[in-house]
């Protein structure tokens, strides 16, 4: 395993494995406008108090800064930390265990989850069809008098496509503005690649495109498993395996790991080095990598300011 990691590091040191977030993305503006209303509307949870934005708030870059989110009727949504919805359009799978392939599936599963919104399609359709504003907006887009649950999830997913955060310092650097990063940040990126963090965190979302076991290089990990990839595949080798999280806006989306047990980004860097790279990264190098990770904070999505 260590030899394979070294080989991948060699390749990545001589190539650019991260691509910048596009400045714009194609989407249906009218549908996204409708999806935005639905995203922030708490009426589509059982107790009418929880919206998508309750766990995926713009204030916290698409997360909620809690170890565990609060769902309907004040329930604590254990055992998984809510991942950010920002840039989720670039993920190959949704949820920590990848049980949803698309943003529509993710929206539906969260809406049905007993600890999150606890809805069913019939109740959802009753509520949305009783709203005259939604009736008019859905008819204009879908040409149907009756709004189905699938249409609701489709509109929410269209809005979520718009939640991209381009133009981070690092993206500007990748586009050719070499002065966008200072020397310490550049050294942090070099160390990020040299230590092998890049083997899992690469691509446009710097994660979200693979699964990995947490604790590759330790015999026993003292952390609850939660809902891992095993829940989806039933393959015993997928226990403690999770989707590699995005590092986009990572400085804004604490706490960290699948169960939100790590509050500090520097501690997360240290533990990942020890658990998944088999390396005790020195504190001075953690400081450099931390400075690099802070350059991954992008601009808030433009769609949040659009009416």
Automatic annotation (TrEMBL):
UniProt entry tagged with the keyword Heme: yes
Primary localisation category: periplasm
Residue span, Cytochrome c domain: 183-297
One of the Pfam families matching this protein, by short name: CCP_MauG
PROSITE patterns (UniProt xref): CYTC
Recorded superkingdom: Bacteria
UniProt keyword list: Heme, Iron, Metal-binding, Oxidoreductase, Periplasm, Signal
PANTHER family, per the entry: CYTOCHROME C PEROXIDASE-RELATED
SUPFAM superfamilies per UniProt: Cytochrome c
Matches recorded under Gene3D superfamilies: Cytochrome c-like domain
Subcellular location: Periplasm
InterPro entries named among the record's database cross-references: Cyt_c-like_dom, Cyt_c-like_dom_sf, Cytochrome_c_Peroxidase/MauG, Di-haem_cyt_c_peroxidsae, MauG/Cytc_peroxidase
Record bears the keyword Glycoprotein: no
Designated name of the protein: C-type cytochrome
């Amino acid at each position: 395993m260590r030899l394979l990691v070294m080989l991948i590091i060699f390749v990545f040191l001589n190539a650019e494995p991260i691509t910048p977030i596009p400045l714009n993305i194609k989407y249906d503006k009218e549908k996204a406008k409708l999806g935005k209303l639905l995203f922030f509307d708490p009426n589509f949870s059982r107790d009418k108090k929880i919206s998508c934005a309750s766990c995926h708030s713009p204030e916290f870059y698409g997360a909620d800064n809690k170890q565990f989110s609060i769902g309907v009727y004040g329930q604590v949504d254990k055992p998984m930390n809510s991942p950010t919805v920002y840039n989720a359009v670039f993920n190959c799978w949704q949820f920590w265990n990848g049980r949803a392939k698309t943003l529509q599936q993710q929206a539906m599963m969260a809406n049905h989850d007993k600890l999150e919104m606890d809805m069913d399609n019939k109740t959802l359709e009753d509520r949305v069809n009783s709203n005259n504003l939604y009736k008019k907006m859905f008819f204009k887009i879908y040409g149907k008098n009756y709004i189905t649950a699938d249409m609701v999830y489709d509109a929410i997913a269209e809005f979520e496509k718009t939640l991209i955060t381009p133009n981070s310092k690092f993206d500007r650097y990748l586009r050719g503005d070499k002065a966008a990063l200072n020397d310490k940040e550049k050294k942090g990126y070099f160390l990020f690649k040299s230590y092998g963090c890049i083997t899992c965190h690469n691509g446009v979302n710097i994660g979200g495109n693979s699964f990995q076991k947490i604790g590759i290089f330790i015999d026993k990990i003292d952390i609850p498993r939660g809902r891992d990839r095993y829940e989806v595949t039933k393959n015993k080798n997928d226990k403690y395996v999770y989707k590699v999280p995005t590092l986009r806006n990572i400085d804004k989306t604490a706490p960290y790991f699948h169960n939100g047990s790590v509050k500090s980004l520097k501690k997360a860097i240290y533990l990942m080095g020890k658990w998944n790279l088999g390396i005790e990264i020195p504190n001075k190098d953690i400081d450099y990598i931390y400075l690099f990770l802070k350059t991954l904070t992008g601009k808030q999505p433009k769609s949040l300011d659009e009416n």
